[in-house]
């Protein structure tokens, strides 16, 4: 039997959403902590999913971040009892969006109007990712 006081997949997802929204707003952990009356270390623990967020604190977070309560649960579906949730293989997307670089990429990509240029950007990123996974064996430069 699991200890229900420990954080689980839902807690991690809520933390990801807190961080994602905080970054979207350009808000520091210190500022969010100030709004909630907690330490920035506590915000870090929430964002990492280390500490569970109480219902009252979740309500305060929704107000401080300007989102509805449901925002924190978007993308979660009922899963196996042990796992707590199933995120349909999208963990990497949420992790990426919860980084400053992910937010920058999303904003910059969103500003590109040309479908052709967007496709080229996707092709470039795909090629870079493939190179990272399986680097090409090029002859040494002479």
Descriptive report:
With 142 residues, the chain is mainly alpha-helical. It has two domains: 1-87, 434 Repressor (Amino-terminal Domain); 99-134. 58% of the residues lie in helices and 3% in strands. The chain contains seven helices and two strands. The protein has helices at 9-25, 29-36, 40-48, 55-65, 91-97, 100-111, 115-133; strands at 77-78, 85-86. The chain has a two-stranded antiparallel ribbon. A hairpin with a 6-residue loop joins β1 and β2 (85-86). α1 runs parallel beside α5 and α2 (29-36) packs across α3. The protein is elongated, with a radius of gyration of 19 Å. The chain starts with 8 loop residues before the first helix and ends in a 9-residue tail after the last helix. Mean pLDDT is 81; it is low at 80-88.
Features:
2 domains, 434 Repressor (Amino-terminal Domain), 7 helices, 142 residues, 58% helix
Tally of domains: 2
How far apart the termini lie comes to 63 Å
Strand order of the largest sheet: 1-2
Helix content: 55-70%
The CATH superfamily of the largest domain is known as lambda repressor-like DNA-binding domains
- Total number of β-strand segments? 2
Structural class by secondary-structure content: mainly alpha
State the CATH class of the largest domain: Mainly Alpha
Order of SSEs: HHHHEEHHH
Outline: elongated
Count, helices:
7
Any low-confidence stretches, pLDDT <50, length ≥5? 80-88
Mean pLDDT: 81
What is the CATH architecture assignment of the largest domain?
Orthogonal Bundle
**Rg result:** 19 Å
């Amino acid at each position: 039997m699991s200890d229900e006081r420990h954080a689980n997949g839902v807690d991690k997802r809520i933390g990801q959403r807190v961080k994602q929204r905080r970054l979207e707003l350009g808000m520091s952990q210190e500022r969010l902590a100030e709004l909630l009356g907690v330490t920035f270390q506590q915000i870090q623990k929430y964002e990492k999913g280390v500490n569970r967020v109480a219902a009252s604190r979740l309500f305060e977070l929704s107000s401080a971040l300007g989102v509805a309560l449901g925002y924190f649960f978007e993308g979660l579906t009922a899963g196996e009892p042990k796992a707590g949730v199933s995120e349909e293989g999208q963990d990497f997307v949420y992790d990426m969006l919860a980084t400053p670089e992910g937010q920058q990429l999303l904003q910059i990509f969103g500003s590109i109007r040309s479908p052709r240029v967007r496709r080229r950007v996707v092709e470039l990123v795909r090629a870079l990712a493939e190179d990272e996974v399986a680097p090409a064996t090029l002859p040494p430069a002479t």
